[in-house]
Amino acid sequence: MHVHSTRYIDKCKSLGILTEEPIRKYPLRSANLAMVLKAYSIEAYLPYDIDARNYDILDDKLYLTDEGLKWLYSVFEKHSLAYLRRVFQFVFSKATPASLNQLDAYEGMSNFKGITGNKPKAGSKQKAILIRAHGKNGAIKDEYNFNTLHEARQEVLMLTRFYPLEEFTLYRIRKQTKKGKVYHYKEEVPLVLPPSKRGLSVNLPHLKE
Predict the structure, then answer these.
(1) Cα 168 vs. chain centroid, distance in angstroms?
(2) Which of 12, 54, 66, 202 could be joined to 18 by an S-S link, Cβ 3.0–4.6 Å?
(3) pLDDT in single tens digits along all 209 residues of the chain
(4) CB within 8 A of 54, min separation 6: which ones?
């Protein structure tokens, strides 16, 4: 699960399916984010095995864009209820055949639409580290720590008024659980987010790698 998750998340963000922008009241729960990644893998003919014991590795605060939500509905609508219950598990556990004809009204879609979700716990926001390498061959490294990626990117905008963007590298602090132990590690992310694709037609049901 973890092997593919990061790559699929990045791909879904580049396609306009997912965004870090808080455009809805609640972000995707970890389990629901896994379902979005599973839908992407099915459409792109890629492997993705879901392990319900390891949902907590998906600690990103992500939201479905408007086009991403339409795309997800289109993926679900292609399949039978039996298939959906088997592959997407709890999402369709309470669904009936009639639910597939009115997905937007089905209660299992509530978190995908961002109208229900888990309230963020204190200190649960993803921390970030911004590093500026300068001097001869970048030998001098200044490190800035932030409680969220949003704060870090705001600081980048301010600092690049005075220093070249090329001197900066941004990392988010991710966590992974192995055998009951939690490990933290750095993952490089873009300094600046690409323009939002909300409202644009991106032909999402026909994904290509």
Answers:
(1) 23
(2) 12
(3) 455 788 899 899 999 999 988 899 999 998 999 999 999 999 999 999 876 655 655 666 899 999 999 999 999 999 999 999 999 989 999 999 999 999 999 999 999 999 999 765 544 467 899 999 998 888 999 999 988 888 888 898 889 888 999 999 999 888 766 666 767 788 888 887 665 554 444 455 455 44
(4) 1, 2, 177
Domain count, the chain: 2
Domain extent, residue 164, equals: 128-189
Could you tell me if 57 and 107 lie in one domain? yes
Alpha-carbon gap, residue 115 to 149, rounded angstroms: 23
What CA dihedral angle connects 19, 23, 25 and 29, to 10 degrees? -10
